[in-house]
Amino acid sequence: MTVVHVVVPDGVDDPTQPSGGNAYDRQVCRGLASTGWSVVQHPVPGSWPRPGPAASEQLAGVIAGIPDGAVVLVDGLVASPSPQVLVPEAKRLRLVILVHMPLGGPAEHAVLSAAAAVVTTSTWTRRRLLDDYALCPNSVHVAEPGVESADLAESTPAGGRLLCVAAVTPVKGHDVLVAALATVADLSWRCTCVGSLDRDPRFAKRVRREAMEKGVGDRVHFPGARTGADLDASYAGADLLVLASRAETYGMVVTEALARGLPVVATDVGGLPEALGRGAAGHRPGVLVPPDDPVAFGATLRDWLVDGDLRARLRLTARERRAALADWPACTSAIAEVLAAAGR
To answer: In what order do the strands lie in the sheet with 220-224?
Structure first.
């Protein structure tokens, strides 16, 4: 049996800390185990990717305990800020770094250059790493997130049930979303913003206050994080996914929405165009708008809410795209190939 040691941030299995990176890591570990790999998981405590001395010492202890020649898959949140630990160990271990979100800087450059291989979650991320660090192209691979099959959402004719799935933080652009929603206050809609309110409590409080000040506070709801059946129910009760992110390396919530036939209005940043993709006829199952532009976002929402033909076209294309989405076994297979090559 082939063994892989997987180093992840502590809390990756915590249902109160839902994130795309955590979900990806869990799916990959389960997938590798189901295909014959012996997966030894090493959660490392600390505020990754900003570890203090204690967290770095914990990581050093974990890495030192892994036997010579072992294949080690390290989550980028742990790896990228830790060259002092990982670069020397790259001489005896076969390190594969899984980059969810590039952090940038010389520390990350050092770690990625020392690794046997790098796995990214999107073509956009791979391209950025190659541009930033001049890594060997043959050592940088893509394993796009998979998506689990789901029932089609029962859309309403008017399309007014809007859903945002993202932790309420500045990078996810909830302030832009609220400002955009205020520009369509004359139309009928409700927006549910599912996501943690604890990552940046000050920002979350500010966004909710702005919603009240702009006169849409009674129609924008912030129920907090949801997982499992509760999250499934949120998707099932939606007409449109809205995402005003300032940065995304992929955007797993986009494919989760498309798996239910939901069109998407999102910002044109990072890997979001890649996640949105195109339907069989080459059309997008949604609309991409510039980041940090509530006027453009609001205009697109207005188009969606007033144009029944547009809603019908985007729903049809979303169902086309749904049929072509990759599953998690495909993602796991891509990573398994990289790990196997690194171990040879």
So the answer is: 220-224, 190-194, 161-165, 240-243, 264-267, 286-289
Q: In terms of C-beta density within 10 A (0-12 exposed, 13-18 middle, 19 or more buried), how is residue 152 classed?
A: middle
- Is 18 within the bounds of a domain? yes
Do the domain assignments include residue 152?
Answer: no
**Cβ neighbourhood burial of 232 (10 Å; 0-12, 13-18, 19+):** middle
Cβ atoms of 173 and 292 within 8 Å: the answer is yes
**Structural domain span for residue 300:** 161-324
Per the rule left: phi > 0, alpha: psi between -120 and 50, beta: everything else, 81 is alpha
Answer whether 203's CB lies under 8 Å from 170's CB: yes
Say which residue the tokens 């832009």 belong to: 176
Q: Same domain, yes or no, for 275 and 337?
A: no
Q: Give the model's pLDDT for residue 105.
A: 95
On whether residue 155 sits in a domain, the answer given is no
Burial class (CB in 10 A: 0-12, 13-18, 19+), 124: buried
Looking at residue 252, its amino acid is: M
- In the chain, which stretches have pLDDT less than 50? none
State the CATH number of the domain containing residue 317.
3.40.50.2000
Asked if residue 151 is part of any domain, the answer here is no
pTM of the model: 0.93
- 313 and 165 in a common domain: yes
Q: Is the same domain home to 122 and 167?
A: no
- Helix spans in 94-195 (H): 106-114, 123-133, 174-182
Q: Residue 61: count other Cβ atoms within 10 Å of its Cβ.
A: 12
Give the model's pLDDT for residue 1.
61
Is residue 25 within 8 A of residue 12, CB to CB? The reply is yes
For the chain, what's the residue count? 344
Q: Is there a cis peptide before residue 49, judged by omega within 30 degrees of 0?
A: yes
Amino acid making up residue 279: G
Q: What is the pLDDT of residue 257?
A: 98
Query: From residue 217, how far is each of 93, 212, 223, 227, 281 by CA, in Å?
Result: 53, 4, 13, 24, 39
Rounded CA gap, 78 and 68, in Å?
Answer: 20
Are 88 and 219 found together in one domain?
no
